[in-house]
Structures are given as C-alpha cells and as structure tokens.
Amino acid sequence: MTGLVTDPIAWWARAQPDVPAISFGGDAVAYRELDAWTAAMGADLAARGVEVGDRVAIAGANCLEWCIAAVGALRAGAILVPLNIRLVADELAYLVAETTPRIVLADAGRRDLMKDVASRGVEFELADLETVAEFRTAPPQPFRCEADAQGSAVIVFTSGTTARPKGVIFSHQSTLNFIFEWSLVEPDFTRGMRLLLVLPLGGAPGTLWGLIHVLVHGGTLFLETHFDPPVTLRALNDHQITCFLGVPSSTSSWRRSPSSRRPSSRTSRPRTSGGPGSRCRCCGAGRSAASCCARSTDSPRAGDRSPSTIGTRL
C-alpha cells in the first residue's frame, strides 16, 4: 500500500499521463503535468525552509494554484492547513495561532486580510498564491520527502458555530483508509471518477473528499469557484460527471433554475445527502429508479439503508 496521500500522483503520471487530473475554467492539468508542477512546488517550499511536520496554510478562493500549492505542501512533508476564507481577521488569527504555520499562501483577495492577522502578533511568512503558476513550466524532477505515513497530513477546523473551532488532524494513513473504504461502498468513488466540486477547497469537503480523494483514484476533478445552478447543470452533462459534492439544497436549486435540464441517465449517479425529501428534485425519479442523483433520509425501510449514507436510496 502507498505511504503518503500524494504518492499515487507519480504512479498515475506514468500509467495515464495525458488523462486530465484537474479542470478549472477550461484549463485542464493532466497527470504528467500535475506530477511535475507539484514536485516543483514541493521542492520550492523545501528550499524556503519548510521541513517535514511544518504547517503550510492556504487562504484563497478555489483555483488551480490552490490545488497545486496544497499538493506541493503535502509532497514536501508539510501539514496542510486549509483556511476558511469566509472568516474575519480575529477568527483567522485564532486558527493561525493554533497551527503556527511556517508559510501562509494567500491570494490577492485575502492578502490584506492575512496582513491584518499578522499584525495581531501571529508570526508567519506570507507568500502570494499566484506565484504558484510560475512553477508550471518547470522541468520534471523527482521529488519525494521521507515523511511518516502515520504522521499528520491535514488539519481542518470545525465551523465554530457553537464553540471555538477545533482542529481535526488527518494522517496520511487515515486519509487513505477512508478513501479506500469509501470506494468499497460507493462504486462511483473509485478509479476514473469525474467529480464536480463547488464547495470551498478551504475545508474538509473540498480538500479531503474532493481534491485528495480524486487524485488518489486517478480521477478528474472539475472545480468551480462556487455553486451556480445553470453552470453546474451544464457541467453534469457536458463533462459526464459521475460524482457531485454539494449540499442537499443544490438539487432544489437545479429544479428552480430557468435553464434547468435533467442530467442524462448515462451520467447521473447516486449522491449522499443529509437533507429531507422522498423524490429527487433534479431528475424527478422516485425510490424505484435505478439511476438517480440524490438520496433521501426520510422513512428508512429495513434493509434499504446504504452503508455509506444516513438515508435510503431514492
């Protein structure tokens, strides 16, 4: 079994070098390019003094550079800290103080905010996230740190709705464990998966269940900046999406969209939902449908519960 969550990238770069790994705004990065780009990013972080076990935080909107910086940090043996970009300076200062990152990569929209955080007595090196693009044309070079598979890989924080946010630590091994276990109960979350992600990368759903999950399986991540019903509906069909990460209200938004069109039966797949409803809001299918794009949590029937969801198949 592989040791680090980033190890599969080098393997996929050899096995399927031209398969798109990440697509954002019409710009697709194939696995061969992803391997070289993230290796260059990891080598740069190491040259800047990032050692195994150091924390590297990212504050930015969804973009290719975010993905490359995150994977590059993991390849350098750093512990990735995705920051919630909806937080204010006081809240971010608490997260940064708790994790003590060596470097914080911030995009243009968050740079002044992170400078405000630094002015509150929290020390870290602030770097521009946009500079990650400079390593895209770097010549391929082998790069792999000697990190421990049992060591920490990612720290994500709870929302802080009822108390101070709490950091949740995922090791390389525990992350791989849940990814491989998930593939046993959700057949679409495996090799060749095509996942549409509209959630922020700065959290567990975006980083762990989205970015890392797809790259471990050699799939393709279709990344959007945010949820837009007409755009995501088109993407479901145009990109033959097999998996979608969103919230339960997404299906209702699709149905209300003026440009609504149902996902084709060839591309729609079951999704795990925590919301109510006995009928799919998107495709209109009932419980007897063989192919549907949502799951229900109401009125579970004996023997009808999927191991990977709190609800029943629609």
Could you please describe the fold and organization of this structure?
The chain has a domain at 7-223: Rossmann fold (3-Layer(aba) Sandwich). Helix 1 (7-15) runs antiparallel to helix 2. The two termini are 35 Å apart. The model is unreliable at 270-314 (pLDDT under 50). It is globular, with a radius of gyration of 20 Å. The chain is α/β, with parallel strands linked by helices. 32% of the residues lie in helices and 17% in strands. It is built from 9 helices and 13 strands.
Q: What is the level-2 CATH architecture name of the domain at 7-223?
A: 3-Layer(aba) Sandwich
Number of helices: 9
Can you tell me the CATH class of the domain at 7-223?
A: Alpha Beta
SSE pattern, N- to C-terminal: HEEHEHEHEHEEEHEHEHEHEE
Q: Quick one: how many beta strands?
A: 13
Helix share bin: 25-40%
Strand arrangement, major sheet: 2-1-10-9-11
